[in-house]
Design brief:
Order of helices and strands: HHHHHHHH
Structural class: mainly alpha
Mean pLDDT: 79
Largest sheet: none
Distance between the termini: 44 Å
């Protein structure tokens, strides 16, 4: 779906190094992310109210925060695509990395909140209800998040974007989190065991490490890091095109 939208919406979509094209990719993915995450929040929040599960409710608000992260990505790409000006003669491209860093910090905050609410659930356990509607909502959520992780990762590779990579990591951590919530709901329905809080802690720890990795991926380009060998080779090929004009080597 996103690939089709790219062809329809992003002009010159194959020229992924052009700032305006990168901006188009980022804005499109941000809009799609906001729509899907708001949809997931509504479904999971309803399931959490019906079931009384803190894990499902926490997962719902995780998706709501993801919608906020998608807005950050959208605004970040919009600002990064601005033309150079006297105050920023090299352009605004690094705003994209700042957007990715903000998304990563949002992941870390959500992991902390999830662990805190899960510990409260361990101390004060409550029965969890399950129904075909709740199970269906969770399964659909998992499939949607898997798709979001896939297209964010693919587009992140296509335009070489750390921000999109952080968003893909966020979606993948959500996939794992919702899968664990589904398993605990099924176990509670089958055996009566209340593993809701414990699994919530496990998911929170997993999301925390995903956030740490996302921070590393986005903060490196901001601080400065060695160029990729492919990038160096590309510069060399560009320079050596001018051998006829007197360029002997580099």
């Amino acid at each position: 779906m996103v690939s089709l939208l790219v062809r329809l919406v992003v002009r010159d979509y194959q020229d992924t190094e052009a700032p305006k094209v990168r901006q188009g990719y980022g804005i499109l993915c941000g809009i799609v992310g906001v729509i899907l995450n708001v949809f997931l929040f509504a479904g999971k929040f309803l399931a959490g109210l019906i079931s009384g599960s803190i894990a499902i409710t926490a997962d719902a608000f995780n998706n709501l925060s993801d919608a906020g992260s998608s807005i950050i990505t959208l605004v970040g790409f919009k600002m990064a695509g601005q033309e150079p000006d006297p105050h920023h003669p090299f352009g605004h491209g690094r705003i994209e990395y700042i957007a990715g860093l903000l998304v990563s910090v949002a992941i870390l905050i959500m992991s902390f909140e999830l662990v805190k609410s899960s510990i409260n659930k361990i101390l004060h356990p409550e029965p969890i209800e399950s129904s075909p509607l709740i199970i269906g909502i969770l399964i659909v959520s998992i499939l949607i998040k898997m798709y979001m992780a896939f297209y964010n990762k693919q587009i992140g590779k296509r335009i070489n974007s750390a921000a999109m990579g952080a968003t893909a990591m966020d979606s993948m951590s959500d996939t794992v989190a919702t899968t664990v919530v589904l398993i605990t709901t099924l176990v509670a329905a089958a055996t009566g065991l209340h593993l809701d809080g414990w699994c919530g802690v496990g998911v929170g720890i997993f999301v925390f490490f995903a956030g740490v990795n996302a921070v590393k991926d986005t903060i490196g380009p901001l601080l400065g890091q060695p160029p990729e060998p492919e990038f160096v080779d590309k510069i060399e090929r560009i320079i050596l095109r001018y051998e006829a004009e007197g360029v002997l080597g580099m």
